[in-house]
User: Which sequence fits this backbone?
């Protein structure tokens, strides 16, 4: 039966939910003070490697961390940002036995003054209706154990889906009225999310869905990627089919601002050309354009930037625009703090640029210069984790839930593994082909 409770006020959120070292306290406060300037309304705190959030969730936050969270709540209030604090108890959940511990931990957060609380069950072993009911009853127990001025959020173990599973049916039925369910789209990383699917799933569940977009996050198998390209396209009708959207940020608090601003801008102004928005936003960060141009790749477009491919083709034919772009470098005007954060990608940019320029000159019959051994240096580029000028290898969270006959298992989709050529690989291959053709 549909939930009669109205959907919560729409949110446009920054989600700190990645695997890896959480943001430092001052970095988080700086993001909170910046968010409203680009239209973001909510900050959802839930980094997987905060032990007191997940692995040791029953343990109360110690005084030092509790004081930091209290300051976070105060800064969020001052900035006009709604803060969500949460607990992720699914790794060792014991059902009803754990209800008092969950209430106690959330009470500790409530006493800080936060009025948006979450109970998250993502990334734990899957199950059927019994597990879904147990998880939903946990959220219900938390809501019953705290005052009724809390706005609740939750994410089930099944959070990437294109149909309602037995788990989700039991989970939704057990939740307190009005509780929205987090959803990443049909896949964990979803290149396409349709309004039709969102509306159908929300109606079937009788719950509002919160779209938690796994972009620009770059953890786990995609940790070598720096997502500085245009926001993924989301059709305008999707905005009315969900209760809001959150963007799962990268582990890089400064670089994430670019993608977060682009995501918020696209959500608020869907009619705006995304390429024009990208150039406008990137240009507002001094010195960032060369690196951002080299780091546009995402799961849906993993290759090098088309504009750079055009420059390469022209460069092999004698045009100097690509060589001039590479010679200008990737650091000029870039803030030192940004350089420190982005150093692995800046260093990769420079290493790739040396081989690229050598290859272009050699293919044009010019003196390519000293300092490059094409065999050794090109292969060395493949060993760098930080990837630029396109994706060589990454494993995204693109997955597909198999049907009941196969146990509703969530397995990686073949498209999750992105393997390809970057701009340097393309230059070497085309260059060698050209040289051998000339040599007969």
Assistant:
């Amino acid at each position: 039966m549909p939930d009669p409770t109205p959907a919560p006020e729409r949110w446009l959120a920054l989600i700190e939910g990645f695997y890896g070292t959480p943001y430092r306290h001052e970095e988080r406060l700086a993001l909170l003070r910046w968010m409203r300037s680009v239209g973001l309304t909510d900050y959802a705190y839930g980094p997987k490697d905060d032990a007191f959030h997940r692995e040791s969730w029953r343990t109360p936050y110690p005084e030092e961390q509790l004081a930091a969270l209290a300051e976070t709540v105060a800064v969020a209030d001052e900035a006009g940002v709604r803060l969500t604090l949460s607990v992720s108890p699914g790794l060792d959940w014991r059902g009803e036995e754990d209800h008092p511990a969950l209430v106690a931990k959330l009470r500790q957060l409530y006493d800080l003054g936060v009025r948006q609380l979450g109970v998250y069950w993502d990334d734990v072993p899957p199950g059927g209706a019994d597990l879904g009911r147990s998880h939903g009853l946990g959220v219900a127990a938390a809501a019953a154990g705290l005052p009724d001025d809390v706005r609740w959020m939750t994410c089930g173990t099944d959070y990437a889906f294109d149909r309602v599973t037995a788990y989700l049916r039991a989970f939704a039925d057990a939740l307190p009225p009005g509780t929205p369910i987090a959803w990443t789209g049909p896949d964990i990383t979803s290149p396409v999310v349709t309004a039709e699917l969102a509306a159908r799933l929300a109606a079937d569940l009788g719950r509002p869905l919160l779209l938690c977009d796994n972009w620009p996050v770059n953890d786990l198998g995609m940790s070598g990627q720096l997502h500085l390209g245009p926001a993924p396209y989301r059709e305008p009708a999707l905005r009315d089919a969900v209760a809001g959207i959150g963007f799962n940020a990268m582990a890089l608090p400064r670089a994430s601002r670019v993608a977060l601003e682009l995501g918020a801008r696209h959500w608020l102004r869907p009619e705006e050309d995304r390429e024009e928005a990208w150039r406008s936003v990137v240009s507002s960060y001094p010195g960032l354009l060369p690196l951002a141009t080299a780091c546009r790749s995402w799961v849906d477009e993993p290759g090098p930037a088309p504009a750079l491919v055009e420059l390469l083709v022209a460069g092999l034919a004698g045009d100097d625009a690509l060589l001039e772009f590479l010679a200008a470098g990737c650091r000029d005007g870039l803030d030192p703090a940004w350089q420190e954060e982005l150093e692995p990608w800046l260093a990769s940019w420079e290493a790739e640029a040396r081989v690229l320029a050598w290859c272009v000159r050699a293919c044009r019959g010019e003196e390519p210069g000293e300092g490059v051994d094409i065999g050794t240096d090109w292969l060395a580029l493949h060993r760098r984790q930080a990837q630029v000028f396109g994706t060589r290898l990454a494993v995204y969270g693109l997955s597909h839930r198999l049907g009941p006959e196969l146990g509703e298992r969530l397995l990686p989709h073949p498209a999750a593994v992105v393997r390809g050529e970057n701009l340097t690989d393309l230059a070497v291959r085309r260059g060698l082909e050209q040289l051998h053709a000339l040599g007969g």
